[in-house]
Specification:
alpha+beta, 14 helices, 5-stranded antiparallel β-sheet, 2 domains, Arc Repressor Mutant, subunit A, 12% strand
């Protein structure tokens, strides 16, 4: 059976499941039949709600907690989320083509990829509506001691983007989910990220912290702000001292914990309410 005939039959087989709960799992099976993939995760980003994991292949136990953190706020640092929301990029991408310089050494990469065994990722970011904040991210990952997705696999997945885009729109476009209140929860978290540490740090120190959280290396930060690497390290050292931190891991955890503990956020540095709660619990 030719590839085209087999692929056409697979599409015909999953079409009846569109707009049913079984569709995401059927879509995952389709992708695994096309290219070697150990894990498929499908996440829907609706306009005002936190992300919803629509499908995930039995993730390793040590990855479950990271997925919980991802939904709670770590998604703000994900290269695919940033490609869509900050750069307006939609389509099919290999992780290495959209990740910032230094991402391999970032805490997000260490916790989300290295600890869970993911060695490579590619995937789709597909908009559900024009000029809207709704989109779906389909992540295809390889786990263990493996090589990156080869060019043939990437080209095959890229070539079917229009078809996958049409399927995604047909299944999810009528399933828009609104939060229980009128609050835009995603916008709240994005504002909290931008304001993280501003009550303690100088403007330049805050810029360094933002870049570090997003996975940029000291060299990339230096190039962005046209300063020396040593100056970047000095700002980082001063910022860590003010935040009472010693490592990038502690910075990442402080950021996530401050977001998770947000309650009735009305703007400003989320660390203020976080430290306030921590102090009250100690009393």
């Amino acid at each position: 059976m030719s590839f085209l005939l087999e692929f056409s039959q697979q599409i015909a087989d999953i079409l009846p499941y569109a707009r049913t709960e079984s569709f995401p799992s059927k879509l995952a099976v389709l992708f695994k039949s096309l290219v070697p993939s150990d894990n498929v995760m499908i996440v829907a980003f609706h306009s005002k709600s936190l992300p919803i994991v629509e499908y995930n292949d039995n993730p390793p136990e040590d990855r479950v907690s990271m997925i919980d953190k991802f939904v709670a706020g770590a998604f703000l640092l994900d290269p695919y989320y940033l490609a869509a929301t900050k750069q307006g990029k939609y389509g099919f991408f290999h992780l290495k083509d959209i990740a910032p310089s230094g991402f391999d050494e970032s805490e997000y990469n260490r916790l989300y990829y290295k600890l869970s065994g993911l060695c490579d990722e590619c995937g789709y970011v597909l908009r559900l509506k024009d000029n809207d904040k709704t989109f779906v991210h389909i992540s295809l990952g390889q786990i263990g001691d493996c090589e990156s997705y080869n060019e043939d696999c990437l080209q095959k997945l890229s070539d079917i983007t229009p078809l996958i885009d049409a399927l995604i729109k047909y299944h999810w476009q009528e399933k828009e989910v609104e939060s229980d209140s009128q609050l835009d929860l995603r916008e709240q978290l994005e504002t909290a990220l931008e304001s993280f540490g501003t009550s303690i740090l100088t403007e330049r120190e805050n810029q360094m912290v933002q870049m570090i959280l997003h996975g940029y290396s000291s060299k990339a930060i230096a190039e962005r702000f046209k300063i020396s690497v040593e100056t970047v390290k000095l700002h980082r050292k001063n910022a860590y001292a003010k935040l009472d931190l010693g490592t990038q891991g502690e910075l990442f955890n402080l950021f996530i914990n401050s977001l998770i503990n947000i309650d009735n956020y009305e703007g400003g540095d989320p660390l203020i309410s976080y430290h306030s709660k921590a102090t009250s619990l100690d009393i």
